[in-house]
């Protein structure tokens, strides 16, 4: 491609039609990133992993989730700037926020969080593998393999994008509220969550009860953090309840948990012969490390070393286990040979605490000061559950 051809492709936004957000306009540099092999791998990683084996319509991928997060990130940061033109937000800052939203999941391995749990089984808490760190490494690799993309960004902008993905201002110095848009570590409200909750609810056929568009319109920056109008508190409770419902209905459905357990057994067995874990440390190999790892195991029928892994995968495909009930503490039902016990941990996103207490709100008559609701105030305002955390253990036996 000549320089003039490349420049012409970088002149205007491109419109993507999305099942969740409708027509999404994404900037030219984001489109250039999308059109790389390193980003295209996300087409082959299911957003919900083995949920697809239980909920057939949950076939969406990390690819479209990242496009949606990019779109919402741009929408959010532009709204905040419109609300207060004096904020230190440049057009380049907006672009960096959009790229961070686009690339925040570049580092997800096959089956996403299940694989993350598998690789961290024997690691210390301070030495855990995190997909956010891998996203930054894959972004570096993407730039190395596509210098025409890297040339469009300054080194300090690349550092800023990585910090936005991590959710901390470690290597860049921008207004703190910008780091709350893609990965908000302060109170867990960000565009990544809005997109996946809306997208997963849609493709699972569950529907959602919260309105992220309203949340965006009711947001503003106060004291260098993103705050929300006080009357949106009900909408935020609906959002956290939607998260809980998705976990209870789908993410931690008892059969999904069983399949995830069997998948981990498969990966442990195949790891000794395929060097699966090595893929996450070599970005060139990681580029082609997708959900197709299961097909690779299954099709090697002549490889006796993978026989145990194939048999375990067939237990998933043939549904070789049946649910026999929950296991209470002190009940040894799950200890019987051949039985599998899976534990579900349901909460609203903050363990046994009410996640709403951390959100900064503001009142219509006082848009320059923020406040937090205390638990007693929230108890009076909302119909809250008696507990925000629930643990359940499911038992299965081989048929």
UniProtKB/TrEMBL annotation:
SUPFAM superfamilies the record matches: HD-domain/PDEase-like
Similarity-based family: Belongs to the SAMHD1 family.
GO biological process: dGTP catabolic process
Protein name: Deoxynucleoside triphosphate triphosphohydrolase SAMHD1-like
Gene this protein is translated from: LOC115231394
Pfam families: HD (PF01966)
GO cellular component: nucleus
InterPro entries according to UniProt: dGTPase-like, HD/PDEase_dom, HD_domain
Organism of provenance: Octopus sinensis
HD/PDEase domain location: 58-206
GO molecular function, one term: dGTPase activity
């Amino acid at each position: 491609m000549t320089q003039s051809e490349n420049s012409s492709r970088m002149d205007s936004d491109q419109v993507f039609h999305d099942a969740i957000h409708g027509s999404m306009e994404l900037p030219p540099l984001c489109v250039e990133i999308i059109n790389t092999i390193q980003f295209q791998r996300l087409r082959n990683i299911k957003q919900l992993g083995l949920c697809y084996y239980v909920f057939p319509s949950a076939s969406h991928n990390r690819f479209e989730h990242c496009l949606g997060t990019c779109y919402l990130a741009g929408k959010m940061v532009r709204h905040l700037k419109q609300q207060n033109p004096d904020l230190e937000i440049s057009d380049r800052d907006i672009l960096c926020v959009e790229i961070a939203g686009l690339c925040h999941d570049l580092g997800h391995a096959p089956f996403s969080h299940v694989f993350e749990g598998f690789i961290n089984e024997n690691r210390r808490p301070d030495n855990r593998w995190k997909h956010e760190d891998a996203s930054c490494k894959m972004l570096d690799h993407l730039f190395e393999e596509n210098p025409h993309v890297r040339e469009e960004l300054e080194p300090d902008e690349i550092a800023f994008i990585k910090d936005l993905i991590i959710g901390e201002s470690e290597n860049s110095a921008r207004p703190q509220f910008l780091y709350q848009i893609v990965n908000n570590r302060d109170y867990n409200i960000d565009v990544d969550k809005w997109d996946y909750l809306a997208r997963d609810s849609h493709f699972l056929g569950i529907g959602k009860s919260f309105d992220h568009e309203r949340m965006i319109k009711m947001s503003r920056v106060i004291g260098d953090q993103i705050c929300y109008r006080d009357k949106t508190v009900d909408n935020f409770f609906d959002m956290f309840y939607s998260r809980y419902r998705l976990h209870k209905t789908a993410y931690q459905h008892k059969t999904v948990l069983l399949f995830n357990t069997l998948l981990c057994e498969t990966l442990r067995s195949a790891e000794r012969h395929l060097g699966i874990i090595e893929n996450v440390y070599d970005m060139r190999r990681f580029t082609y490390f997708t959900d197709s790892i299961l097909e690779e195991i299954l099709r090697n029928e002549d490889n006796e070393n993978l026989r145990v892994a194939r048999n375990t995968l067939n237990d998933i495909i043939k549904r070789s286990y049946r649910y026999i009930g929950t296991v209470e503490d002190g009940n040894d039902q799950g200890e019987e040979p051949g039985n599998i016990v899976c534990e579900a941990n349901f909460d609203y996103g903050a363990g046994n605490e009410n996640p709403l207490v951390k959100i900064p709100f503001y009142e219509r008559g006082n848009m320059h000061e923020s406040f937090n609701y205390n638990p007693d105030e929230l108890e009076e305002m909302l119909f809250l559950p008696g507990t925000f955390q629930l643990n359940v253990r499911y038992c299965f036996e081989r048929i």
